[in-house]
Amino acid sequence: MATTLKRTQMYFPEDMLQQVRQLADSEHTTIAEIVRNAVGEFLRKKKKREIDWDNDPLWDIVGQACGSGCSDVAEHHDVYLYGGKR
Asked: What does the alpha-carbon distance between residue 82 and residue 28 come to, in Å, rounded to a whole number?
């Protein structure tokens, strides 16, 4: 399946553009191909960092009972956290 490429315009600092040109020349490719590969890699890494909430082990602790022995924690949580009178 062929991919349709869309034209875009970008601005680079002069020194960065010079480095990309040299890389393109040394690899016998184009600046556009290097930029496409770099953006593709960036997007793959970004997607890997997204959290898979359905499989996150943190969810294993949700709903587990804790044995504080206090029956009014929801109502008086500030007292338990910071002290003081109920």
From this structure: 66
- What CA–CA distance (Å, rounded) separates 60 from 57? 5
pLDDT per residue over 1-30, tens digit each?
Answer: 678 999 999 999 999 999 999 999 999 999
Q: Where are the domains of the chain?
A: 12-49
What whole-number distance in Å separates Cα of residue 53 and Cα of residue 17?
40
DSSP string for residues in 33-85: HHHHHHHHHHHHHHHHHS--GGG-GGGGGTT-------S-TTTSHHHHHH---
Residue from 13, 41, 1 nearest 33 by CA: 41
